[in-house]
Structures are given as structure tokens and as C-alpha cells.
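Practice problem 4.
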């Protein structure tokens, strides 16, 4: 009986409870709380395996991209199950992955925002009123479906010290100059609990590569500025081959202050933003099985790396 629910929207409580259940069910799984949000929700890790190679996969940086959370949770469950039973995942022995790799995951970077979009935060509540007040300054953005930020109105994927001032200039010029549903960079880099905790965890883990899962477009972004990272292009090409997604250059207006940008800049290692699925955010849960099928090869390939490569 599968633990991970893939037929209902994944709220912060479902995510947290699912991680706890996976840790209880599988000896290869463990977890820690990286931080509590400003509204008291935990940002948790899910870690599977015990190998020397560390990788770090993240999801739901943006509230209305919550469908990426069950993507990582299901991968974690299937990997743990393959490790315990001697089975395979995407044709690879689970125990091979578990012995070679430690897969660190942060399945829900933005639990407050996710709860707003999934309906766990109900109209009439104080939190809903706070978000509604911020959203009122941006009436062109559907509420709450258009919400990407945390409940402080800060876009958590515009919080990293990698061209942050440039991102600020771009977003302010586009009218996102105050807390709201999307594209507000905050008052300073890493001034939000969630982004600061993820940066600290990344420094602690020092992963060989990172994946940052977003939606949508079936696109792989793998560059930041003119940094040339050994193995990054080859990995992106393999990700594209196994998924059917396209490698693309990041649009200029979205090219700065993101998590993978900061990782590439500070670690000089491969970092990727994967835009999963297609359509208009939030993607419907009915698209989950297709998203998982398309991305399983990326996840396994990223875990193991390429022979002789990253």
C-alpha cells in the first residue's frame, strides 16, 4: 500500500505526515526540520540512502507549483522500497543507489504558500485575510491560484545572492515592488526563513548537484551567466533525452537570484531548474502520473551522475 498520496492536492500537513510515515516505514529514510515558517509550518527534509555522493533535490519553491512535492515524495518512497526489498527503480538496483548516494530532498520549500493555493488555508481565516490584503495590490493576478510567494509576500526563488540586485531592478520595473503574490524579491537576499534555511542546508550537505523543481513548460534550465560548469551540459542533455524535455536558456527577466543560480555561482557545480508538466499553474493533479513518468529518469540519473562526470 503506497504511503504517498498522488490523487489529492498535497498540503503542508499531508507532506509533513507523509515524510513521518516514510521514516517510520523504511530504515533507509530519515528527516529533519530545517526551520519553521513565519506562520509555524515546518520545512522538512526527506533523506534516502547512505552513500558518499550527496545530491539535493528541492520542490515547491512556489506555492502554485505544489504538484512537484508529491513528485519528490513518490520518488523517495519508490527508492526506499527498492532499497529495502532488493528491487529496482527505473531499471536500476535500489541498493546500488542507496549504497553509492545519499539523496537529500526538501519536498516543500514554501508550505505557507502551498496551503493557501491548495485550500488548506480557508477564506475567513486570519492567514487568508493577510494574503488577500497583499493580493489586492495586484488585482490582475488570480487569487489564490496565481499565488507563488510565501505568506509574507516574498518570492522564495528570488531570494538568493546571485544577481539579486539585478533581479530587484527587473522585478521593480515590472511593478513587483512590494510584498504580493509573486515576483517580490524581499528587502534583502536570504531574509526569509525558508530561503535562509535551504541555503544553510545546502552549505551543510555540499551536494554534487542540485535539482530545483518548478512547473511548467517541460524545460530544463542549466546555466547561470557565463559560468562553465564541468559536466553540466552533458547532464542536461541526458536529462532531456530521458524525459523528452527541452534544454533552454533562462529568459533574461528570470535569470537572477534563483536557488540554482546561487548554487552554480557559489559551488561551481551543476544546478538545474526543471519546469515539469505543461499548462497553467497550478497544474491539475490529473497530470501527476505523466509528470512522474517523464521525470523519474531525471531523478535517477541525477542521483547517480554520469560515468566519469558530474
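Answer key:
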Amino acid at each position: 500500500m503506497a504511503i504517498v498520496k498522488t490523487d489529492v492536492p498535497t498540503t503542508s500537513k499531508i507532506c509533513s505526515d507523509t515524510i513521518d510515515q516514510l521514516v517510520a516505514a523504511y530504515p533507509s529514510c530519515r528527516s529533519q526540520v530545517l526551520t519553521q515558517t513565519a506562520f509555524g509550518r515546518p520545512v522538512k527534509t526527506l533523506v534516502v540512502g547512505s552513500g558518499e555522493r550527496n545530491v539535493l533535490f528541492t520542490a515547491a519553491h512556489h506555492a502554485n507549483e505544489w504538484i512537484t512535492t508529491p513528485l519528490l515524495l513518490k520518488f523517495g518512497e519508490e527508492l526506499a522500497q527498492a532499497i529495502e526489498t532488493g528491487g529496482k527503480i527505473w531499471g536500476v538496483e535500489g541498493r546500488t543507489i542507496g549504497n553509492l548516494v545519499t539523496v537529500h530532498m526538501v519536498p516543500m520549500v514554501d508550505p505557507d504558500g502551498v496551503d493557501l493555493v491548495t485550500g488548506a488555508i480557508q477564506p475567513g481565516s486570519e492567514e487568508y485575510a493577510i494574503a488577500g490584503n497583499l493580493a489586492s495590490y495586484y488585482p490582475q493576478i488570480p487569487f489564490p491560484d496565481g499565488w507563488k510567494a510565501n505568506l509574507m509576500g516574498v518570492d522564495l526563488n528570488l531570494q538568493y545572492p546571485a544577481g539579486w540586485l539585478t533581479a530587484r531592478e527587473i522585478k521593480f520595473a515590472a511593478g513587483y515592488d512590494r510584498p504580493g503574490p509573486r515576483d517580490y524579491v524581499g528587502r534583502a537576499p536570504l531574509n526569509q526563513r525558508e530561503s535562509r534555511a535551504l541555503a544553510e542546508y545546502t552549505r551543510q550537505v555540499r551536494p554534487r548537484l542540485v535539482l530545483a523543481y518548478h512547473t511548467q513548460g517541460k524545460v530544463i534550465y542549466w546555466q547561470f551567466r557565463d559560468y562553465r560548469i564541468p559536466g553540466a551540459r552533458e547532464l542536461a542533455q541526458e536529462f532531456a533525452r530521458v524525459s523528452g524535455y527541452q534544454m533552454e536558456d533562462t529568459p533574461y527577466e528570470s535569470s537572477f537570484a534563483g536557488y540554482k543560480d546561487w548554487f552554480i555561482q557559489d559551488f561551481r557545480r551543476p544546478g538545474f531548474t526543471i519546469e515539469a508538466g505543461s499548462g497553467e499553474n497550478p497544474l491539475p493533479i490529473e497530470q501527476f502520473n505523466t509528470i512522474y513518468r517523464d521525470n523519474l529518469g531525471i531523478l535517477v540519473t541525477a542521483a547517480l551522475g554520469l560515468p566519469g562526470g558530474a
